[in-house]
Amino acid sequence: MTVIDDGIATARRRIEEVFCSAAATAPREGKELLVQHLLVGEQDVRLLVDLEKNIITGGADLSDLAVEYSLCPSKENGGMLGWVRRGQMVPEFEEAAFGAPLNKVVRCKTKFGWHLLQVLAEREQCVVEDIPPEELHAKMQDPNFLEEAQLIDVREPDEVDKASLEGFKVLPLRQFGTWGPVMTDEFDPQKDTYVLCHHGMRSMQVAKWLQSQGFRKVYNVAGGIHAYAVKADSSIPTY
């Protein structure tokens, strides 16, 4: 074995040790992580070590190196994967990411090759909850709620003409291509957001999409406006 071969073998062992250590760290249950990474081939251990050294001792930015060296399509965005949660990544990458200290570059190996990853931030996981129509009705009696909450009705205009609730802004699902791209300009992702449709199916689709866009607390009106009319306010027409 040559000195170079011995060095590569040592590097491989070191990578395995770091990966195993990262995988054994606290799981961060209920968290979402903002992650960037770069990917190199399974045989490119020397390149991996050099890139890590450039970051740690040379002051290089992982995102710049990702643009130049990464094999992952995310290189177009500087290796940025965005906010991720458990269940969205291959197991090895997930364990390394959720075990990594903030801002520290961590190595791990997956079926795709070797990764250098960095967790830039963490936050509580966004959630979508069903809210019973009776509970929503009680909240809507409070003027402060109507002023603070973000209320969205994703039904079509002809449906809204038949029955509607005070304070809900109409964003027809069929017009998603128009309002979707500007959603975060019109609404605050940090505020409680309630989504309504006829029976609760379309609204759940939109609620999950809002969640993926970083909206922190999204409520789907269970059963839609039909259930609201039947269970909470009989003055609302059914159709």
TrEMBL record:
<feature type="domain" description="PpiC">
    <location>
        <begin position="30"/>
        <end position="121"/>
    </location>
</feature>
<keyword id="KW-0413">Isomerase</keyword>
<feature type="domain" description="Rhodanese">
    <location>
        <begin position="145"/>
        <end position="237"/>
    </location>
</feature>
<dbReference type="Pfam" id="PF00581">
    <property type="entry name" value="Rhodanese"/>
</dbReference>
<dbReference type="InterPro" id="IPR036873">
    <property type="entry name" value="Rhodanese-like_dom_sf"/>
</dbReference>
<keyword id="KW-0697">Rotamase</keyword>
<dbReference type="InterPro" id="IPR052204">
    <property type="entry name" value="PpiC/parvulin_rotamase"/>
</dbReference>
<dbReference type="GO" id="GO:0003755">
    <property type="term" value="F:peptidyl-prolyl cis-trans isomerase activity"/>
</dbReference>
<protein>
    <recommendedName>
        <fullName>Peptidyl-prolyl cis-trans isomerase</fullName>
        <ecNumber>5.2.1.8</ecNumber>
    </recommendedName>
</protein>
<dbReference type="Pfam" id="PF13616">
    <property type="entry name" value="Rotamase_3"/>
</dbReference>
<dbReference type="InterPro" id="IPR000297">
    <property type="entry name" value="PPIase_PpiC"/>
</dbReference>
<dbReference type="InterPro" id="IPR001763">
    <property type="entry name" value="Rhodanese-like_dom"/>
</dbReference>
<dbReference type="InterPro" id="IPR046357">
    <property type="entry name" value="PPIase_dom_sf"/>
</dbReference>
